[in-house]
Amino acid sequence: MGAEAALLKPDWLTYPENPAELNRTIWLDNFQRDESGELTVDGCPVTELTEKFGTPEYVFSESAFRARAGEFRDAFSQAFEEHGAEVSVYYAGKSFLSTAVAHWAHEEGLNLDTASGGELAVAMRAGVPGEKIALHGNNKSVAEIRRALDYGVGRIVADSIPEVQLIAQIATEMGKIAPVMLRVTPGVHASTHDFIATAHEDQKFGQSMAAGTARLAGVSAEELESLELREDDAYATVAVALALRAESIDLRGLHCHIGSQIFEAEGFSKAAEKVLGYMQELNRRFEVELPEIDLGGGYGIGYIEGEQPRAAADVATELADSVSKTCANLGMEIPHLSFEPGRSISGPSGITLYTVGTIKNVAIEDEHGETRVRRYVSVDGGMSDNARPVLYDADYTAVLANRAPAGEQVLSRVVGKHCESGDIVVRYTYLPEDLKAGDILAVPATGAYCYALSSNYNMLTRPPVVATKAQQEPRLMIRGETEEDLLARDQGLL
Ligand SMILES: Cc1ncc(COP(=O)(O)O)c(C=O)c1O
What we know:
This protein is α/β, with parallel strands linked by helices. It has 14 helices and 21 strands. The protein is about 30% helix and about 20% strand. Pyridoxal-5'-phosphate (PLP) binds near residues 136, 260, 297 and 340.
């Protein structure tokens, strides 16, 4: 590595001694290089994929997705079984959903967590039975709630008192009993980006368990009294009392999700402790036995060098141990547990392929006033197919995919083709010095929150998603958009 590069790169990035080697904390075994050095996905060479489906292209390994879904299913059920507890695993569809993916998740024995009427529609189209589906969201519409109840979803996760009231009202009108979980904020600050941390108080999700927040519940003093509550109770306690009083609601329990891309076990254990303690308080106070707790998802994956994602078995064992210890301390039975991993199942299962376009060296001044050079490599996609770098400062890595990345490696920044200087795909990576226009780059771990967050910014068409499976020809899972698609909703000259 040249002296100038050291000033331009973060500490975690090291010069690749063997640039053809795929870092296995980022790349699953479904991704390999063949004898010529070309990257393959489930045995299919990337050039075959790009010749057939073009670039940019999302490639999603069905084999990897199914294997990871199975790992989480088995890890959680085994870990909790050891403590005599039952568990359900919901795949968080928001991370990446298509009809086929919903079907695979169902076939692998996972339930499905949907975050909108649209995600619910995909699950319905895939034939996922209602009782296996959860509907989430902090602002569900009447139509979404109606549809969920009509289809008989296994649970609606209510995020506020107005939602509890709305669900009760709609269920009454429909002559249904709505199975409801209440999302609470355990007040644990997870160490992740602020926009994906969701259990501290000052954000939009969940209902506060903190004493004194009942006064924020928007219910009158008389109503509080009629519920036998006080102003020094918690907002969530008011929601629980209202849900228990509503004849059209079957209150199943509490839900929390502390955030996403979290590596440490501590935050999850702390949240579990707090929610279990609170549930026991509710059980005593309202003389009920709420049967279930959902502890959400959020398990981190490897995007870049140095990140150490934990295996599903370790995550599950730590959670099962801490839940069982907490329940023993509280003197309560372990309730039915559920979990909602998304990224940790879909993320490493997908990659994005891009074609290299213009390559440009840019002079920058380092902190000592010395002029240095950064190599900018432009590709044919960008923030419209991967918004995470712009949204969360997310870091990725990239490799040369169509041939072996031999020779000298140069510190590079991979950028998109959008009209934003923040349109960065990979902030820091080493790529071969001889990289040229027409080469194919692969960005790993793009299976989650990339297609799901994609847009048509600058009128780019969304790329296709191609599914691969060991011993099978690659199949188009979601076709890429065309210019006709772009123009289809535009009503023309008015
Ligand atoms: C309620 C809920 N459950 C599960 C998830 C999935 O999180 P992850 O994909 O990080 O596992 C999310 C992500 O935002 C969420 O909001």
